[in-house]
Each structure stands twice: as C-alpha cells, then as structure tokens.
C-alpha cells in the first residue's frame, strides 16, 4: 500500500512539473516579448534538473561505515566515519545523511544525528562524528538514510542503506586488593565443612583445627607431636576455584554490581585462579570453571551483555540450578539487595561449598535488617561483605561497609 501511494505521489509531482513547464511555454507564446521568454528559459534548467533528479539512481550510492574501534570499555569514546561514493558527478544541491543508532547510543552523540552536506559534483564525501562516554553493552547499528531534493522542492529522493554493525562495550573494572580475594578461602567454611565428604579425598597435609572440622579428620600423630589439635588437609580444601553468580534482578545498583563483578574477574584471573560464571537472568548460560585469557574474555563478554531481566530471586535460582555449581569451588554471589530471607534460602540450598556474598549498598550505613542478615549468615558459615556503591564507583573498591 505504501509503495502504491509513493508511486502515485511521484506521478502527481511529475504531472505538476510538466504542467508548470507547459504553462510557462504557453504564457511566453501568447504574451511574447523578452520578459516572458526570459522567464520561460530561466525556469527551464530548473525543470530539467528536477526531471533528471527524478530518474537519478540514488540507491546506487555506495555507503560504508568505519569505526575506530569495535571493542571498548565503559566510558570510552569511539570515532565513526561514514564514506559515501557514487559513479557519476551529477550535481547534488544537498544531501541529508541520517545515522540510525540504537536508542542507548543516541544520547552519546557529540553532534546532531542528522547532518546536511553539499556535495555538488563530488563523487566521494566523508562524514565524521564521535560517540562519547559509551554505556556498557552490545550495541547494534541499524542503517544510514540518505535524502536529497531539487531546487523547487517538488522532488526528493530517499534511500535507506542497511549497514549492520556491532559495537561491544565491556564493563569498567578496578584493581581489587588482594586481602579481599584471599578472605574467600579463609572464611565461610565453618558452617559448610561438615557437608563435604572429605574422607574420600586425597590427604595433602595437616593444619590447625578449625571449628566445624569432623573428628575423623583429626591427625592424632601430628596432634601428639605438636601438643595441639591438628586436622588433615585435603586436596578439595586447598582448591582455590571460584564459581561467580551475578544477580540480575531489577535494581538501580545493577551497573555498580557489573563493575564489581568485572573487577573481581579481572583480579582473580590475574592471580591464575580458575573461575566459572553464571548470570541469573534470561540467556545467562553457565561458563564452566576455567582459567586463562580466553576464559577472561568469555566472562567479560557475558558481563557486557548482562541486564536486569531475572524473573526469579537469586535464592530460587541457586536452588533450581544447584547442579551447575562445581562441588569443589567456592561460590561467590554478587547482588544488590541482601535480606534475611535471601540468606535463609541460600543456607537451606544443598550446596557443598563455602559461600561469599558481596552486596552492593546504596548507603554507607547498614539497615537493621542488613545487620541481622549478616549475623545470621555468619552463624550459617556464609561470609557477607557490604560494599558502598558511591565509594566503589569513585574508584575505592576496597572500602567495605561494616
């Protein structure tokens, strides 16, 4: 229907142009004299130009978009160059170039989204613009629209060029202090140690007794020598593998959560620790525990696509997907809201490893419910850390609300 209306509109405009040319010719014939013929011959070039433009193949233009970089970090800038070329030198009075950007990128343009240039006889022309302070995510370019017209305003030619492109913006990250990472392997085991079947593991050494150790783990020979209770140390207990879960429930603190998760992944990967990852929202495929630069890139790519689309709370997700969590890895959860109910559900889940929860807080002070939830978690052997959102975004990730 739209195509039919467009053709009818073009035919009507062509009929109007021919009518004007005929009217000018008839006026010159009947009126005679220099003035009337001067008007006719003055109008004739504009009419001829409009007729040629009506047949001009603007769809034959070649349009190319070139990005200075395809992968960036949050907050960085990218330069965009649009190159337009054509085969003929037919003069164009103007050319309107419009970049169809995703909505999240429109507000990051330093210049107007539409730009008018005056190519005239040029066969190739270039437009440059930049996108600044890019938001995290996977952004897809759509296409470019070109539009031109004649001097009389009767005809306009328009063409849309489908130019798909992708811009991947990874989350920003900071260097986390070592003490925060090291605490993952020293805390949060007391309440869960008795669930682990250590008897079937390989004994690798002895260590001091810790609350929660079973009597069958006590090494009596070492205890007699040192005159202090010593327990067996198993290979599983020396494992420094981590399985990270990101809570994608809707919250205003989500970007801070993603930034902290990226900082955690970066710092852990630098130390050679194996890490797996899972997002609780839709499309959050589990990444198995691995190490190396390739694993780091996979985790950062998954974090770049993270969004608040989780339909169930984090505790229900853990209960439902407990099978994807390796039994010999420390579970680390990053969330934006810690409640007593969350801790209760997590503690009841059949997970046989230590659990550490990082809760990104909006305020520097803790509410009564958060304090109670932390104490309850501590009693269950779950390590809870509250991180102040504003301080972390300012680049001070080591400050933890106590």
From TrEMBL:
Membrane among keywords: yes
InterPro entries xref list: DUF58 (IPR002881)
TM region(s), chain numbering: 38-59
Keyword Ligase: no
Superkingdom to which the source organism belongs: Bacteria
Keywords: Membrane, Transmembrane, Transmembrane helix
UniProt-listed Pfam families: DUF58
Domain DUF58: 206-337
PANTHER family, alphabetized: DUF58 DOMAIN-CONTAINING PROTEIN (PTHR34351:SF2), SLR1927 PROTEIN-RELATED (PTHR34351)
Name of the featured protein: DUF58 domain-containing protein
Source organism per UniProt: Peribacillus cavernae
